[in-house]
Amino acid sequence: MTIFAENGRMELAFNKILKKDLDKIIPFVMELGEYQTDEALLRARFQEMLTQNYECFGIFLKDEIIGVFGLWFMTRHYAGKSCEPDHVYIKPEYQNRGFGKEIFEFIFRYSREKGCETSELNSYVQNFRSHKFYMNHGYVIKGYHFLKKL
């Protein structure tokens, strides 16, 4: 799906990534630096994720992939049908250009089209820039996310 900016800027395209195209997005997810895993394991996990209620998108500017994000779809007892954006990443040289706003406008529109009532996400505690961004887009902090390795 291609989005044309009303202000005459270059167009962004959000294209679904299929299993056969995982090589296009793995380097972006590795750039997030939050994963303590090797590339082969990350690829295997993405292949499994794509069999679940998960969709992955590449962010394209003209013909160049400049970022990636994933969307999880689920129904939660407290939120109804929900979309959870995951591993949203844009190359540093394309940050602070308003693309994040366009990405989330697409995510919200796409989620509504799929019948979602809410969107929720996780953000690392130390990622203060993302907290401000998400709050500016209507998210509120509702709790803590806990993780235990088994």
Give a quick precis of the structure.
The chain is of the alpha+beta class and 150 residues long. The chain contains 4 helices and 6 strands, in the order E-E-H-H-E-E-E-H-E-H.
Question: What key phrases describe this protein's structure?
Answer:
single chain; 150 residues; alpha+beta; Aminopeptidase; 6 strands; globular; disordered N terminus
Describe this structure in words.
This protein has one domain (2-121): Aminopeptidase. The model is unreliable at 1-7 (pLDDT under 50). The protein is an alpha+beta fold. The termini are far apart. It has helices spanning 26-31, 39-49, 99-113, 128-136, and strands at residues 2-3, 12-17, 54-61, 64-76, 80-90, 118-119. It has four helices and six strands. β5, α3 (99-113) and β6 form a beta-alpha-beta unit.
Radius of gyration: 15 Å
> Roughly what percent helix?
25-40%
Give the helices and strands as they follow along the chain. Answer: EEHHEEEHEH
Mean pLDDT: 90
The share of residues in extended strands comes to: 25-35%
- CATH top level class name: Alpha Beta
- Write down the domain tally: 1
End-to-end separation: 39 Å
Q: Would you count the extended β strands for me? A: 6
- Tell me what the CATH architecture is: 3-Layer(aba) Sandwich
Number of helices: 4
CATH superfamily heading: Gcn5-related N-acetyltransferase (GNAT)
Briefly note the structural class of the backbone. alpha+beta
Largest sheet: 6 strands, mixed
| Largest beta sheet: strand ordering | 1-2-3-4-5-6
Shape field: globular
